[in-house]
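Long-time lurker. I teach an intro course on protein structure, and each term I like to show students one example going from raw sequence to a predicted 3D structure in token notation. This year I'd like something fresh instead of my usual example. Would anyone be willing to generate the tokens for the chain below so I can use it in lecture? Attribution to the forum is fine with me.
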Amino acid sequence: MLALVLLLISFGTIIYLVATKRNFAIAIIAGSLILAISIPEKIPSILIDTIKDFRTIALIIIVILIKLLAVILQENGLLQDAIFALQKKLSYKGMLIAIPSLLGLLPVPGGALLSAPLVEEHAKKMSKEKMMFINLWYRHIWFIIFPLSTPLILLADLSGNNIYDLIVRQIPIFFLAFFVGYLFIKNIEYAKIKNENGNLKGLIPILIPVSIATPLSFFFSTYLSFLIALPLGIISAILIGKKIDVKTIKKGLSVTLAVAVFGIFLLKNIIFSANIPNLVSAYLTNFPAIVTISCLSFIIGLLTAHNLAAVSILYPILSPFLNDISLVSLLYISSFMGYLISPIHPCVVLTYEYFKPRFGEAYKMMLPPALAMVIITTLYYAVFISFIPQQ
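-- Reply from a regular --
Happy to contribute to a lecture. Here you go:
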């Protein structure tokens, strides 16, 4: 019970500090220290393990490299040129959807930082909160049907279902998510688009790391693949832009982001060490199966901010209830929505740090569609299971 109380205080502190414009890195470290009270004897080993963890070090370097790449592209005007070129082929709304969607295929935590400058460049008159929502929503919803989504591959393997059977089942859910996102850009004040000729060469430094890291990821870890590929993207951005100085480099190297990423891993490790996912599940197992799957999956996705970890935790706990592929799909969708909006999800952290919206207003925009997706999906599958004969 102490761990659960401290968890609520921890997340409440993070949300309060961020909402009152405090540095996110400070907020996440403060939240970690509060939760650490529940397991003080384990903190030294958790701290050492977090510092030594290759994933922690790799993601810190990757996030810094992505930020540096984005700053170089901005300072050289390459992003603006790419926007001018693309907008001649797509509508205004189409551009807002296409930018995070295409760059969302960059399969690295925190990759939303790469599409954020492009969204901002195109959506001059849009509120920071809407920019944050669009950048996060359309970057992620494709993973509902993306066959190379690692959590989806894992869940298909654990449940014994063909991944394409799961994807077919989730296509209507994807279109629903796409439509929900579209509602938020339906009534917007259009930015005045300059009628200038652009050049798509500004996308080359972005496409290089994606095209190199994707095949490398079949042989090495995703982290290692991007550690190899991102410097090549930065070098190409410098060569194409022909402009780099100390000021640009200092602007791209963010200590705050490094500390925030470390804090995210530290908090996650404390959550797992305190056995909080299992403690939460114990309170929900007395509810109807479909409600248990829906609620518990959303909560664990929210707490872990890591969809692969959430699936790994949830399937063993919920396997007695997962006697239908629709329920397996519900586990994935619900945990995915919790993960998408988690305040310790790296993409949420980095997008927030980039746009600096009003935290409360940003979550007023993000929370309702995520909850609506979980509720509608739960009702959809409840009807599906009740009235459609299952094989």
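Some talking points for your students: The chain has 20 helices and no strands. The chain has a mean pLDDT of 80.
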